[in-house]
Amino acid sequence: MDGQTYFCRFNAFRTLKTCWEVKFENYTVLFQLVLILESVLRTFQEINYMIQ
Fold it and tell me: What angle do CA 23, 29, 33 make, to 5 degrees?
């Protein structure tokens, strides 16, 4: 696992933890947003790899 993927997953965990503590009702939406951002990051990494 590279650093960017680890960073995204770590932030996803922090987001869930914060939402759980504050008891946000929309924490699943935030979690989905983090997963989408991770997917976008992975796509950019693949494009960057193809360019090199």
Answer: 125
